[in-house]
Amino acid sequence: MKQVFAGIDLGTSSVKVDIVDAQGRLLAEHSAGYSTSSPEIGWAEQNPEEWWQAVWTSLCSCVTHLRTVEDSFDLRGIGVTGQMHSSVLLGADGNPLGPAIVWMDARARELMPEIEDTLQRTKLHSVLKNTPAPGLTLGPLVWMRRHRPEMLDSAAQLLIAKDYIRYRLTGELATDITDASGTLMLDMNKREWCSELCETFDLPPQILPEIKLPSEVAGVLHSELSAELGLAEAPVVAIGCSDQAAAAIGAGVLKPGLMQLMLGTGAQVMTPLSSGEVMPPRSLNMFCLHALWCLQGSIQNAGSALNWVRSTFRADWDEVMQAATERPAGPLFLPYLTGERAPIMDEQASGAFLGVRYGAGREHMLFAVIEGVVHGICDAVEEIDRVVQLPTQTRGAGQEPPLQAGGGEIRCGGGGAGQDAYVQLLADYLGRPLSVLDRSGSTALGAAMLGAVAAGVYSDLGSAGAEMGLKVGKVLEPNVKQASKAADRRSEFRFRRDHNLETERKLRGRAASCNEDMLTSGPPPDASATTT
């Protein structure tokens, strides 16, 4: 009987469920979406029940399909992964007290200066290893303490998105080390919840879940759910991990010296480190995965910018990729259509075409945008390399640096990795070969691999990865004939980027100052008034 494993990936807008065999071959897949509501400007909420219905519909669909292609199978294990930072509070009855607050929610933005100042003053930033941001779990909790204290006081448990799904599957209340890292509440040196932080912000420590390893057994699938799936025996369910950690597991990026580049709506760059001695700058973040520390840069504008230029210029993918192949010389493009995280960390930055001259045509604008996206990704890769290679005060004389990056293998996945012209442009501008994975879907696969380890089919993630993990399908080498031109374009982009961002920030500061003057100066005098 064929042993199979399910991986559940709870994304920002939809869930994807894959069922694979013990060699990682895809046997069934299904996706289902759910909505995001915004009851106030800047808020982003989702209904946990919609999550669950989408997950269960997809899992049932996969099992039903599997019965049409396999004579018999044994669903041995299930793994879960999902969007980081998004959280839901449960009451004493185990039900959500309200909607989940999603990672893109900005209601805590006004609290960020205060939170950051507090973390600096108390020196807690040195153990949290990440910079405060509105969407990180701490922000909404502090906001709730200020604005919805009764809800926070009645909470019995805090769960991250994928933890809620596992709770519905098994009843297990817990989280894992990767999602705990993304809350801005974990002491990453001790790998435990930071009690001093809870005291500082008056947060109830008892709602924080127990922290476990991703491949630990959470329990078995509820008997009634197993019966609904028509399974003779309930599969085990792994604790699971965050989406970025699951992608790394599926892609085999689990040792220092490797780098993962995922090309999707945004882009993610991540490299594992053997030591947590690095203190990430504002533009990067860090999470723990087993014995590793993973340094990550998030780029907001990748596939989203390409979709924008396609829509604006009514171009299809072939036209964009043809421009990426032909590379007509022309204007540069700053791709910051929704602000940007790594490496500029400026949510108010805006996109711009720079250096447009008479004669610039459609093909020049298409190329400028995909080139701008590539520049943004290169910036993040170079920032990670810069941070990893910094000397540290804690390293002893003659001790070998425990951190490795810069020149190591980059494994490239995600939907964008299927476009050779896009990846080749990246390889040329980075000046480094890119190892393209043989298929997309490393995140759900990574979750399924956790299920296989939890089921005891494999002893650890290394052995599971050797059999189930994605393989490198091809390697795109940088074109030496393009090296000089690529270097020149990178240099010009950096210069124009820095100058434009500086100008934008000055203008924003001037506008804020003018608005403040108008508020403090009072209303203009009444011209009709007379004096005697």
Summarize it.
By secondary structure, the protein is of the alpha/beta class.
Describe it for me?
Helices cover about 40% and strands about 20% of the residues. The protein is α/β, with parallel strands linked by helices and about 525 residues long. Among the domains are: about 250-300 and about 380-390 and about 405-480, ATPase, nucleotide binding domain (Nucleotidyltransferase, domain 5); about 305-380 and about 480-505, 2-Layer Sandwich (Nucleotidyltransferase, domain 5). The strands form 7 sheets. Strands 1, 2, 3, 5, 13, 14 and 15 form a 7-stranded mixed beta sheet that branches. Strands 18-19-17-16-22-23-24 form a 7-stranded mixed beta sheet. Helix 1 (about 50-70) packs across helix 6 (about 160-170), helix 10 packs across helix 15 and helix 12 (about 315-325) packs parallel to helix 14. The longest helix is centred in the last third of the chain and has 38 residues, at about 485-520. It is globular, with a radius of gyration of 24 Å. Residues about 390-405 have low confidence and may be disordered.
Secondary-structure map:
Elements: E1 2-10, E2 14-21, E3 26-33, E4 45-46, H1 48-69, E5 73-82, E6 87-90, E7 100-101, H2 112-121, H3 125-128, H4 138-147, H5 149-153, E8 157-160, H6 161-170, E9 175-176, H7 177-181, E10 186-187, E11 192-193, H8 195-201, E12 211-212, E13 217-220, H9 223-229, E14 236-238, E15 241-242, H10 243-251, E16 259-263, E17 267-273, E18 285-289, E19 292-299, H11 303-313, H12 317-326, E20 332-334, E21 352-354, H13 362-388, E22 410-413, H14 420-430, E23 434-437, H15 442-454, H16 461-468, E24 472-476, H17 483-520
Helix pairs in contact: 1-6, 10-15, 11-13, 12-13, 12-14, 13-14, 15-16
